[in-house]
Amino acid sequence: MSEILKSIKVLILLLIFTVITAYFVGSMFSAPMGNVALIKIKGEIVPEPDLFVDVASSDKIISEIKDANSNPEIKALLVEINSPGGSVVATKEIANALKSVNKTKVCWLRDIAASGAYWIASTCDYIVADEFTITGSIGVTASYLEFSGLFEKYGINYVRLVSGEEKDIGTPFREPTQKELKDLKSIIDEMHIAFINEIAQNRNLSVDYVSEIADGSIFTGKQAKELGLVDILGSRSEALQIIKQDANLTEIEILEYEEKFSFGDLLSGFLSKQMLNLMLSNKLEIKAV
Amino acid sequence: MPKRKISKKDIEMKIREPEIIDEGEYVFDIPQQEVDIQAAPFWRRVVAYLIDAIFFYFLPFQIFMAIYLPKVGLGFENVSAMQAYINAMPTAQMRLIVGFVAALFVFLFYFMLLEKNFKTTIGKKIMKLQIGGKKELSYWDVFIRNLTKTVLFYLLPLDLLGIVFNKGQRFSEKITNTKVIYFSPLSLVYESW
User: Fold this and answer.
1) Could you say which of B60, B70, B85 has the minimum Cβ distance to residue A15?
2) What is the count of structural domains for chain B?
3) CB pair distance less than 8 Å for A18 and B98
4) CA–CA separation, A229 and A65 (whole Å)
5) Which of A186, A188, A270, B173 is the most core-located residue (most Cβ within 10 A)?
6) Is-catalytic flag, A115?
7) Residue B161 CB: number of other CB atoms within 10 A?
8) Is B155 exposed, middle or buried (0-12, 13-18, 19+ CB in 10 A)?
9) In the annotation, is A167 catalytic?
10) What is the rounded distance in angstroms from the CA atom of residue B109 to the CA atom of residue B104?
11) A71/B105 CB distance under 8 A
């Protein structure tokens, strides 16, 4: 009898352990649930994440977009944008990733969705913005500080050793030549033309029309709607309403991707900031801002 | 000396606590000439393991997956629906793998619990096997000797090589100084290895 009791106790213990393990491990790896994926694009658009500054990393956003696209539970994407724009390449990467999604995409513009952020928004099926959202700024900018005058004032000479005439193009230590300025401008113009073509194609507008308004001007949401750059004036609720209608959903459950940092991310983030402070270098930045 | 008739009760009582003289030898109260010790066939241990695996699959594993899969978004009605989801969703495959790994730990716990309390498992009991070599098995013993059968299953082929070199003991059994004994109370043939 005692053997039978012991057997029963052991069996119960085994089952309890099974249940606890299943519950505990399941909770650790529980899948986010929802039928509408919320993709947030907040801050300056850059290729890689930054631990200390709020940026819209294209690596992170693209992985969320791919995840939402491959998840059969997700029927639509709500792209929330609050960004002044940023890196041209990172912007294009996100825009292309969104274009490859064959589900309903509704973009909700918040405080600011300018330049590259608008490029991304234009890839969505619908754009919803508040009447006071700042958008537009369709253009490309590049700038750097040039210290040749200051060096001359203090008798500092810049000794130039280059293998090719334009090898040190963009150096802050001397005045740029006319050819260099022309070359830099051609790069900017090339990007600008690509930007205009993308907007025209995405928004079903003529290239000429977009070229006219793509002088870098910013618009309010209301102005943007009049220009055909925004579809609906409203907020998140309007955006969700459009999703419901377009994707034929009766209920909406938002799936929000959480950001998780590993110890490695923390360490590399700290070190990269330290390196940045130590370097204190000036560099040429090209942005779609 | 005439052979006395030994009853089943005698055998059960006398073989319960075998006394170890030196490594590999077991002394019982039954006269030595009536005991014929033979090397046990490997197949008994394999069949015992398969029986344990089948039992584990049909009870603890089913309970585990019934709780785990819905929690990780894989609670589908049938396997083909789940397969289609996993094919479409790379992260789902990882969740499934994690579930299987966690289930292996439950399998390890099954062996540990039963061997610690009964010196045998369901499969071993059916195949008339028992853990010998020590009077009392510690948790460390049952943990080490069952690792390669469960969580570290990929090391099992290496562990089994020990049977060739250690007179029937796997390497993990050699470490814990345990052995799997076969005994049949209905005959006087004791197989140990």
Assistant:
1) B60
2) 1
3) no
4) 23
5) B173
6) yes
7) 12
8) middle
9) yes
10) 9
11) no
Q: Which among A58, A115, A122, A137 is annotated as catalytic?
A: A115
* Domains and their CATH numbers in chain A: 33-137+217-274 (3.90.226.10), 141-205 (no CATH)
Does B119 fall in a domain?
Answer: yes
E strand or H helix at A237: helix A236-246
Best mutation target among A2, A20, A25 (most B Cβ atoms within 10 Å) is: A25
Considering only CB atoms, A21 lies closest to which of B64, B84, B88, namely B64
- Domain, as residue range, for B79: 38-192
- Chain A CB contacts of B104 under 8 Å are none
Does residue B48 form part of some domain? yes
Q: Choose the catalytic residue: A6, A167, A179, A182.
A: A167
CB A37 within 8 A of CB A63: no
CB distance from B84 to chain A under 8 Å? Answer: yes
Distance spanning both ends of chain A, measured CA to CA: 81
